Every structure is written in structure tokens, then in C-alpha cells.
Q: What sequence folds into this?
């Protein structure tokens, strides 16, 4: 596909910005780090690839065990009528990859005449129930409901091959989404194409399998989403709710529209109906009843459409008109749709800006918005992308994102708000947003004031070239602010700075967003010192070179047994070399879970000598009741008082003395620990930001 004019303009602005930032990076990071960053920004991103589908070998029958529990969390109900080899493949898949949740498997035989009756009793752990006479799919499922003992009932067709992790993904949804009443799987054809990611019901009661024949990885179908109904081929529902609703409605006997009716009953009872794309089930569609609606059981599909239409006449008036082509814009038409443009998806376990963005997204979703995230580099972020999709965020990536300009041209009109993150990305994308989403409120998220951070770094280094670069950044950053509707700042100090530099700019304060974890261990159970921060951020590298080289040796003179744990991704080799010369220093690099260090370390240090914004490393420690020793720069704009919330020192001897004092004074430590938690709740919790977020995004 030839590049559009819009994308050509975008790429030109992006290239210009990359060149300018690369020159600045050469001065601050050196040529190796700069080349690495250029490579990350310019390389073509590969498409994400799911693992190959699991298909059990087609072997002759031999007895085998299946998962079984006397106290199951889930009861898997499999109604069968002949097609014993399909049933065998389904059970072999369940046996090959047992779910983590305890379960029981109930096969309800609706009068089979093949080898089903001979094989099923030989499968260890299986609960095999034979109906007295053939009654059809609905009757068999309702029998399974009566036999079930689990907290959840899972309906599963016998012509399915559930993939590894399918059941756990379904059940976990009920824990992460308390309003969930029914959750269905993403159904796949045996060749891997999508069969259905939830079903659409039009106003005439006709149905549409959303995503049929498309890629199962397409962003339109890959995030948790409310749906009109889920196919009874693979769905889960709490057993008590299923019983309260009377099971499957017998008026649709023997089959068809009973799953659609169940979804409408669940929704009418005040619960959500969701499709969970992380649950994958291969479905050999049409095995039982074929595909011809003119004869056999399949003919009931036509009849039952009219039955359903009569029962749900009022609800159908709110459905899409027949003839519509379902799309994300239409499916989320009743929600406020918000677009976030950033270079990459947030990785909240790696940096504070990502944690803030991730928690902001959670707040938007809780406010009823539909959030769409477009990483302009096009990269699928692996687990980070999947974490957003699990929340319900529509995340676009290569190869489905073929260009930011083309994408905005196709989707821009549906957004009420567009947020662009960091000034260089906003500079690249703003012309496209203005053109293709003119109705949207434009929001510029600074993350921190880049020009302020760069200016302070230049002054510390006494580098005139860096100072000129910082002034160019200032011009660009202020120009973006002037061209957007709202600018988000993270600290009151930055807000005060802008009152001088750009008083006409409309600003809102949305600082770091944290959940208060609690006190954790008490003073006597904690030991050692901790620092957390990624080393692509120049202030963190400078801080560690100063602390390890000049401050920590002074601390060890008075606390010879204390250790220092330095945590953060992308540690450069010179820092490793420096740490190797200092006894007691442990450079861990990236750590997936820093909570043990937050709960077990006695003190966190933030020895930043330049920077801007609010320091997430301080928030993170304080949210766990871990007191902090920091510099004046580090605590700027964080509502912290020296001696009450933190200890503040700016030269090496004073910083070392503050650490030693806090490390050995239990009463001081306990006072700072308690005040830390109060500070987070008052200024840096999601509750503290609720009004600002609502004003910017939801009103």
C-alpha cells in the first residue's frame, strides 16, 4: 500500500525530531546508547505471533484420566450426542493441559448410539451421565447444571479443542471484573482463523459472529470487551446466577438462540456479558447440526429468531440496525472514546511514568470510557500489550497498524479526547489529530517538563551546548502546549513554573498515581538501602554515580554491615564497574517484582542532582511505608517536609549523615513511615486525582 500524504508528513516531522534528539543524546548518553535508541525508534516492528494451536493426536481409544476434584471451582458441562471421536479429542485436550483451577468434567449423553457409551465410563475422573431419552442441547445442558458442584458452570461443546490456559482465563475474568455475569471464549477455526469474538445481535434479532474469518490477533478482537452474547460452545457463568435465571430457556428447544437469550437475561439481571480473547477454544463449527438452516435441527435457528424477537422486543430497540457493519466505533457508541498516542505501551514494572499512565487508564475505564491505545512505533509490547488488552483497552500494533496517518484517517472521528504523550510525539502527531479528529479535545501529557530537566542537567554539567539544546526544547514544548486544549503536569512546582513561562496555557495537575500498599514490615524486620530507577533516564545514572562513588562509602564507615540494592533496567557497564569497586553495593538491573525490596528495605534513597516532575521512586517507597532520604531536587513539588515526611540533604557528607541517622533512629523512622503513607493517600492516590481526570477526560 503506498504511503499516504498524511503519513508522509508525519514521518517527516518524526525524522526531524529524531535527528534533533539524537544530537542531544550524543552529548548526554554517548554514541553507543544513542545508536541503540535510534535503532529502537526506526526498526520495523515484527508482528506478534501466538503459539501454534494444540491439537491432540487422532489415536485409537485407550483409557486415560482427566482432571477431577471433589471440591471443584468449575464444573465443565459437555453435552454430547454421538460424534464420540470429537468428544475424545476434547477430553484429551483437557487432560493434556489441566487448568490451574480445580474442576470437574461432566459429560451429559443425550442418547448417543455410537461408541460414546462404551468409551466414556473408562475415562478416569470423568462424571458420565446418560439421559433417559434424547431431549436436545438445552435439556442436556440443564441436566449438567443440576449435576454441577462448582462455583462456576462452564458450557463446552464436544466438538471443541480447548487450548492451554483457556479455563483459567475465563474464570480469572470474574475476579478482575466483579460485575461480570457471563464470560465467553474466543472461538477459532482449526486453521487458526477467528470464528467468533463475541456475537452481535441486530434489532431484528439476527446475529453476527464478530470477527469471523479474520486474524485472531487483530486489535479489534483482542481485548476484553462487552458483547451482546457469547456462543454456548464455550462460556462460563456463576452457578448460583445460572440457577436464579432458570438455566437455558426451554422455549428454544431443542437448540439455537438459547445462548443469546441467556446473555440477555444476565444483562437484564444487572451483570456484564464479556468476551475474553485470552481464552482460546478451537471449534469445529457445524459438527453436530450442520449448517443448512432449511432442514434438521438447524432449521430451529430460523424459528427461534422469531421467538427471541418476541421475548426481547424492547431490548432489541437499542441494538444496531440490521445491515450495519459492526466496528469498534459502533460497538462502543454509547461510551466516551478516548485515544492515547505514545511511542510504546506502558510497562508499569519498569518506570514511574508507565505506572502513572497504566493507573490513569484504569481510572478512565472505571469512569465508563472506552480507551484506545496506539503505540506510534507500532510495536506489540508482549506482556505489556496483553495487560492493557486484559483491562479492555483496544491496542493497535503492527501489522494491523499500517501508519499513524492512515489509522487516524480511518478512526479519528470516533474520539472525544485524544491524549499525546511527551512533546516530541505531540509535535509529530498533532497536525494529524487536528485534521482527522477535529472534534476531539487535545490533551498534551508532559510526563515532566523536558526543558526544565534538560536545563538543570546542562547547568550541573556546565555545558553551553546542552543549555542551548534545552532552550530549543523549551520552544518546542511550549509550542505544543499553546496548540493543544489542555496540558497535563505532574507537580505543583511545574505548574508554578508555567505560570511564569506560559501563563496562557490551560493546565491540569495529574500527578503520579499509586495505590497505598500499607506499612509492610516494621523497623526491626527491615535492613539495607534501596534505589529504584531505569538507567535510560540520565538523572538516574548521574544519581547513582554520585551516590555509589561519594556517598555510600561514607555510610559504610558508620554502618559497615549495611548493603545497598540498586534496581533498574538498562544498567550501563561503567556503573557496573564502579559498583564492583564498592563493597556492599549490589546492582540487580531489572527486577520484575520490586515489592520485596519495598517491604524489606529499611530506607530508600533518591540522590537526584537534576531532573523535573514528580519522582515515582519516592512515591513507590512511600506507598509501602518505606522512608526516604532525598535531595532537594528529588522532593520538588511533592508536598514533603524535611524531618516530617522525608530527610533532605544535598551534599555527600550531609546525605550520608541523614541515612545513618534514619537507619538507626527507630522513632524517627516510624514517624516518617506513617507520614509517607498519609502523603501518598492525600496527594498521589487515584482518589486524589479523580476530579482532575474527570474534568480533562470524562466531561
A:
Amino acid at each position: 500500500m503506498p504511503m499516504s500524504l498524511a503519513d508522509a508528513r508525519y514521518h517527516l516531522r518524526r525524522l526531524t525530531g529524531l535527528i534533533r534528539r539524537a544530537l542531544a543524546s550524543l552529548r548526554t548518553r554517548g554514541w553507543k546508547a544513542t545508536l541503540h535508541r535510534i535503532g529502537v525508534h526506526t526498526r520495523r516492528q515484527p508482528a506478534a505471533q501466538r503459539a501454534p494451536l494444540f491439537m491432540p493426536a487422532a489415536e485409537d481409544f485407550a483409557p486415560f484420566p482427566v482432571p477431577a476434584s471433589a471440591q471443584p471451582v468449575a464444573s465443565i458441562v459437555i453435552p454430547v450426542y454421538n460424534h464420540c471421536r470429537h468428544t475424545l479429542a476434547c477430553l484429551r485436550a483437557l487432560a493434556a493441559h489441566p487448568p490451574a483451577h480445580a474442576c470437574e468434567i461432566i459429560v451429559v449423553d443425550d442418547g448417543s448410539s455410537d461408541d460414546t457409551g462404551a468409551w466414556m465410563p473408562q475415562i478416569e475422573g470423568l462424571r458420565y451421565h446418560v439421559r433417559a431419552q434424547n431431549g436436545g442441547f438445552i435439556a442436556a445442558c440443564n441436566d449438567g447444571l443440576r449435576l454441577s458442584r462448582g462455583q462456576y458452570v462452564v458450557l463446552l461443546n464436544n466438538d471443541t479443542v480447548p487450548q492451554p490456559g483457556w479455563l483459567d482465563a475465563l474464570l480469572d475474568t470474574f475476579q478482575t471484573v466483579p460485575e461480570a455475569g457471563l464470560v465467553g471464549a474466543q472461538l477459532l477455526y482449526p486453521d487458526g482463523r477467528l470464528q467468533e469474538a463475541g456475537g452481535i445481535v441486530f434489532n431484528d434479532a439476527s446475529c453476527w459472529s464478530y470477527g469471523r474469518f479474520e486474524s485472531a490477533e487483530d486489535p479489534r478482537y483482542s481485548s476484553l470487551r462487552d458483547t451482546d452474547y457469547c456462543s454456548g460452545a464455550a462460556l462460563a457463568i456463576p452457578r448460583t446466577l445460572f440457577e436464579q435465571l432458570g438455566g437455558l430457556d426451554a422455549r428454544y428447544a431443542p437448540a439455537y438462540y438459547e445462548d443469546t437469550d441467556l446473555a440477555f437475561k444476565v444483562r437484564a439481571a444487572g451483570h456484564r456479558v464479556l468476551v475474553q480473547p485470552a481464552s482460546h477454544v478451537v471449534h469445529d463449527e457445524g459438527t453436530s447440526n450442520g449448517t443448512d438452516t432449511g432442514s434438521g435441527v438447524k432449521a430451529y435457528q430460523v424459528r427461534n429468531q422469531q421467538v427471541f424477537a418476541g421475548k426481547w422486543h424492547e431490548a432489541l430497540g437499542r441494538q444496531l440496525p440490521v445491515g450495519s457493519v459492526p466496528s469498534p466505533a459502533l460497538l462502543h457508541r454509547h461510551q466516551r472514546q478516548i485515544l492515547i498516542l505514545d511511542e510504546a505501551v506502558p510497562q508499569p514494572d519498569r518506570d514511574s511514568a508507565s505506572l502513572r499512565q497504566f493507573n490513569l487508564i484504569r481510572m478512565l475505564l472505571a469512569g465508563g470510557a472506552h480507551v484506545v491505545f496506539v503505540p506510534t512505533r507500532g510495536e506489540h509490547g508482549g506482556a505489556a500489550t496483553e495487560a492493557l488488552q486484559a483491562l479492555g483497552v483496544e491496542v493497535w500494533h503492527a501489522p494491523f497498524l499500517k501508519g499513524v496517518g492512515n489509522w487516524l484517517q480511518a478512526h479519528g472521528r470516533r474520539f472525544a479526547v485524544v491524549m499525546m504523550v511527551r512533546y516530541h510525539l505531540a509535535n509529530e502527531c498533532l497536525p494529524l489529530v487536528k485534521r482527522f479528529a477535529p472534534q476531539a479535545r487535545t490533551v498534551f501529557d508532559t510526563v515532566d517538563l523536558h526543558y526544565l530537566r534538560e536545563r538543570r542537567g546542562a547547568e550541573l554539567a556546565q555545558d553551553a551546548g546542552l543549555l542551548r539544546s534545552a532552550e530549543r526544547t523549551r520552544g518546542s514544548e511550549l509550542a505544543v502546549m499553546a496548540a493543544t486544549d489542555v496540558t497535563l503536569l505532574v507537580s505543583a512546582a511545574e505548574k508554578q513554573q508555567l505560570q511564569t513561562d506560559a501563563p496562557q496555557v490551560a493546565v491540569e495537575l495529574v500527578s503520579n498515581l499509586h495505590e497505598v500498599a500499607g506499612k509492610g514490615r516494621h523497623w526491626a524486620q527491615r535492613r539495607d538501602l534501596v534505589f529504584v530507577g531505569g538507567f535510560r533516564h540520565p538523572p538516574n545514572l548521574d544519581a547513582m554515580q554520585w551516590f555509589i562513588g561519594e556517598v555510600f562509602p561514607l555510610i559504610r564507615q558508620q554502618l559497615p554491615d549495611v548493603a545497598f540494592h540498586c534496581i533498574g533496567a538498562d544498567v550501563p557497564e561503567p556503573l557496573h564497574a564502579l559498583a564492583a569497586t564498592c563493597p556492599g553495593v549490589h546492582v540487580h538491573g531489572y527486577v520484575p517484582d520490586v515489592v520485596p525490596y519495598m517491604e524489606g528495605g529499611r530506607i530508600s534513597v533518591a540522590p537526584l542532582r537534576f531532573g523535573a516532575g514528580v519522582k515515582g521512586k519516592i512515591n513507590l517507597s512511600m506507598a509501602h511505608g518505606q522512608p526516604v532520604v532525598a535531595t532537594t531536587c528529588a522532593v520538588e513539588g511533592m508536598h514533603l517536609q524535611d524531618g516530617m515526611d522525608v530527610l533532605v540533604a544535598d551534599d555527600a557528607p550531609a546525605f550520608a549523615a541523614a541515612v545513618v541517622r534514619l537507619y538507626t533512629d527507630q522513632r524517627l523512622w516510624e514517624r516518617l513511615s506513617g507520614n509517607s503513607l498519609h502523603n501518598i493517600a492525600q496527594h498521589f492516590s487515584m482518589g486524589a486525582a479523580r476530579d482532575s481526570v474527570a474534568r480533562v477526560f470524562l466531561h
